[in-house]
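User:
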Amino acid sequence: MRHDAPGAHAGHPGRPGPAARLRSLPLLSNPVGDVSASLVVFLVAVPLSLGIAAASGAPLMAGIIAAAVGGVVAGLVGGSRIQVTGPSAAQTVIIADLVVRYGWEVMCLITLLAGVLQALLGAVRIARAALAVSPAVIHGMLAGVGVTIALAQVHVVLGGDPPSSAVAAIRELPAALAGAHLPAVAVGALTTALLLLWPRLPGPRALRAVPAALVAVAAATAAAVAAGLDVERVSLLASMGEGWTGPVLPDRADVHGVAIGVVTVSLVASVESLLSGLAADRLHDGPRIRLDRELVGQGAANAASGALGGLPVSGAIVRSTANARAGARTPMAAALHGVWVVVFVLLFAPAVELIPMAALAALLVMIGAQMVRPRHVADLRRHHEASVYLVTLASVVLLGLLEGVLIGFALALAVSLRRLTRLTVLTEERDGRWHVVVQGSLTFLGVPRVARMLRTLPTGCHVDLDLHVDFMDHAAFESIHAWRVDHERTGGSVDIDEVHENWYERSSMQAPPVGKTAPGGLARWWAPWRMRGGYDSSAPPTGLLVAGAQEYHSSTAGRMRAMMGRLAHRQRPTALFITCADSRVVPNLITASGPGDLFTVRNIGNLVPPHDRGDDASVGAAVEYAVEVLEVPSVVVCGHSHCGAMKALLDGVHEAPEAVRADRLRRWLGHGRAALERTPREALEAAPGAEALRALAQANVEQQLEHLLTYPAVRRRSEQGLLELTGMFYDLDTAQVRVLDPLQGAFVPVADGGVGSRIPGPRGPLGPVGGPPPEREHA
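Assistant: Predicted structure:
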């Protein structure tokens, strides 16, 4: 899939999808949403820009210049609809080191040249190459930078100066604690408390929409002024009065170091901007980011910022997220936010000088802590890359950014090379047949081990050879082929199954069943019959089912026998999964679950009749059995896009007389009437057909979660913290799963890792329900 191409949604033939329509709209097509979003992002950007400039050892005005130039230039020139560009905390360590070594004026030159290099990389269409860096290295680098920022700014909160390195910050911390300046500590503590509590305070949504950073810094400033605290404050006017400082040429002896700085700033800014832009794409339904154009835009912004005396800039996911959630739809929002930054500084510079430096330092300590995300370790552990993350983090903190990234990159390469040599060979004799399983990467390095194992098999025996490999080179293929020829020449037989990550190829001598490919072809087990090679459209439906069962017996049943034998005596499902009977929704596929994991209930529209409605006992019986007898720790209600039941609700089928529609269907859809009523009618009428169905289907999931709470067993176990209720939504257009986040009141993607492994229960009229389930033993 090309990221340069506009996204598309299924819809009416010949009618452009939402993405195509948005691409054709001019910059001023969404004035209200873009203006309001620009104001929200501006409020976030001002304190962040000042804090990053202070932490970088740069003039505070450099942060303001970077925020303004980044917003306007990158917003109008770049290739992303909603990404916001500005000073980045991830580059603070790099900038501070370069400023100490070469001075601020040379740093401006480095920023300018890094921008030119970025633009050249974008012009030669090399943007995608920047994404080849291992995510473990990227996340480890960001975490290391976060730790370094937090350690340095803790000293400012304590009333001192930031040390030159993380090691020095750790070494000097006891002395800083002993000589802490109490007024600065009080300001920092108040700022930190507001940053933590503001998003969680009850009140109108409009009030809580005010950025926590702005509230915390403003409140700390007001408290410091009212109490007359003697604390160090922002010196913005002084830096403005010193006159403009732009880029200058370095000394001849420093040229080599400056060149390395240019490359470092360019690469870090490029990777961060592209990753942030791809993440921001998940926040809107418009055209996807054009990576090469975005890189050109980021380069132009950095060149302009360096020329005007500003900090390096890059795409920022925090500001981009605020931009999308505030209603931005075009780059005009990002550009306007830069304009507001300039207007604010020109009109309210004296007010900015009242801000205590301890408040900005506390804000940066929180930002640094948030850059260390433990869930990344859990995600990377599953891919056996946690060591790369941890080593990169420690190296950045102890040795420096460039050294840490190089060490992490080298370790990532070593881990990848080790995987190419990792191979497992298992043999088992059963009923006179030998079963050999080869797992891993089968290259020439593993050929001697596999060949030695195969040569030990008895002459003339039947061998089932399963190659569970992600890669097999020509040397391995030739070796196995030669052994097979020799074994069959001596009276033996060989049946080879080759199983790759996303496809199944059966290379036995048997003829394939209906719907499967011939030996050597490609057949995706997760694809419908009609989409597989060799599909016989004339075969009767029953014949396809029987053929599928035959394929199951020939390729899978033997491998599952031991596991199913253990599960046969008891089921301990992890969740009751209530979803629609739609043939396109496959619960085990979209949850990567297997036998014994899900206790599944499927019906028209994934509806749950309330407990006091006795006209349908089937769903209620399943709920009570799963909760009371099986004691599942989780109940999931999963809706999906393009749902026929939701379309029937919109069409008023549940209100139709019996003579018009089947009575049973009409009465059943009545259980979804409440979802229709909780969705604003004007919103449904204003949205396109597919979007209206999407909104109603998501509202229906929330409504059915509330219906579940009418069951005494569900309510009781939820209040005891033994049962968790979760809402899910499956988007057929993108094959993406979304999970209901009750704190946001919205369905958020799980593919970007933005959602934790466990979502709190839904927040309905009864308040938050559910909690972490107890540890369970799986059979």
